[in-house]
Amino acid sequence: MNVPTNLFMWFMACLPIIVLLLLLIKFQWGATEAAPIGLIITIITGIAFYKADLRLLASESAKGIWSALPILLIVWTAILLYQVADEAKAFLVIRNGMRKLLPNELLVVLALGWILESFLQGITGFGVPVAVGAPLLIGIGVAPMWAVILPLLGQSWGNTYGTLAAAWDSLASSAGLAAGSPEYFATALWSAAFLWFWDVVTGLIMCWFYGRGRAIKKGLPAVLILAVIQGGGELALSQVNTTLSCFIPSCISLVALFLIGRMKMYRDEWRLEDSPIMNRQAETGDTEEEGPADMSLLQAFVPYILLTVLTIVVLVVKPVNEFLGQVSIGFSFPETSTGYGFVNKAEECFSPLVPFTHASMFLFLSSIAGLVYYGSHGWIRTGGTKRVFAKSVAMTMPSGIAVIGLVIMSKIMGGTGQTAVLADGISRVLGKAYAVLAPVVGLIGTFMTGSNMSSNILFGEFQVTTAKLLGLNQAAVLGAQTTGGAIGAAISPSKIILGTTTAGILGNEGQVLKKIMPIALGTTLLIGIVVFLTAVL
């Protein structure tokens, strides 16, 4: 790479991200308004300082639009699923049923904000846990903003080995780790160990949000048991089968939660009336609405059960996956380069969309099945189907602008060399101290792209090269890279938009980011310190 890595060029590469964060957090802009500004600055810096031409910008913008499509499909289908359940008043049944099944309200919050998200991340990913989890949490009385924050945290620990280890496979491929080699398993071990730590943090922070010290005291045994199953199970399985190392523990934790609910300390009714995350006023207003009297909790969950079954069958059963995966849609892009010689290789089929194995297909089919099932029992009122589709489209449209703008911004930053300069500049200045910021690089990658997989593809090879040059523990650095990427999934604007859209609070992305950012950055730096200590001790 011939792009000059100096303080000025590094600052210019940082500028779009700095402006985006300021607009979202400091000035409380919504992502719909902030994303176009960040994109404009990215284009200006790309042309003026990184010598990008219009052909490159057009190519990267087209890639961005195409990459945004799968996200938008998930947004719309997740909202459609929510509207179907809402029209049938299934959320009222879920709220009341979960309270009877788990009398301890903190366990209900952990169930729908952490454990269910872990399970969904294990099989689907791509933002589905956030889009599905937020409405469910609102249904049990969680305030909308917190209903977005909790799933963002809950799904993030599974972002490396979840989605059947898609992000892990991309890291191994980018870093040149041969499957089954000692380096492969050493890196898997470091990754799983760091992710286990983050899993514990997310469980405890949810208790803290619910009721500060009182909730941590009450929830600590449950969190530790569940974290051992999830994080400890993932650590053990990462040395045997990385593909299922998140999915299997998340399934076990889902069952374990209900067994924990029968323990002496959790089987009695318990809740904090002054919990800052619960919307007690809304509960009072809902006293007259109990949902259909003839709908059971199991029936209320029918669309979500079908979503789980469809996903498992299509993604886990190999013959089914191979058959449905034959249909693939993608576009070719020519090679482009900047005036500095930063080259984007030609793509014969860029980021192919496989519609029949994509998460949006599972969400759509589950939504249609929910409409039919609820309708056959008389739980969908006259005109309900029309209302469901109309509301879904209306809620999706505004978020589309933000998602497209953010994804194009990330593609242009990557295509002009700005992303590479960010990472390269950090390593050159810090020397061995770079180890502290190794996971921050992964976090930045996911923050920009919305994908831990993309972050690993962007920075996997860079992290290996840097580790070798600086004499750092290569496995620890790569583990920190993907863990930082997983943590970044909790603060990625494109994922936050999924939650704020389905929660009906689009425009509040800055408030959500403000709550999660200190936790994410603090944990990421702690992991970086551990990596640094492996190099100096």
Describe, in plain words, how this protein is organized in 3D.
74% of the residues lie in helices and 3% in strands. The protein is built from 22 helices and four strands. Strands 1-4 form a two-stranded antiparallel sheet. Strand 2 (336-337) and strand 3 form a beta hairpin. The longest helix is centred in the middle third of the chain and has 56 residues, at 182-237. The mean pLDDT is 91.
SSE blueprint and pairings:
Blueprint: H1 7-26, H2 31-48, H3 54-87, H4 90-101, H5 105-123, H6 128-139, H7 144-156, H8 162-175, H9 182-237, H10 247-260, H11 280-285, H12 297-300, H13 302-316, H14 318-324, E1 329-333, E2 336-337, E3 343-344, E4 347-353, H15 359-376, H16 384-415, H17 418-430, H18 434-449, H19 452-470, H20 474-488, H21 493-502, H22 509-536
Antiparallel strand pairs: 1-4, 2-3
Largest sheet: 2 strands, antiparallel
> What letter string, H or E per element, gives the SSE order?
HHHHHHHHHHHHHHEEEEHHHHHHHH
Radius of gyration: 23 Å
Mean pLDDT, to the nearest integer, reads 91
Structure at a glance:
By secondary structure, the chain is mainly alpha-helical.
Keywords:
globular, 3% strand, two-stranded antiparallel sheet, mainly alpha
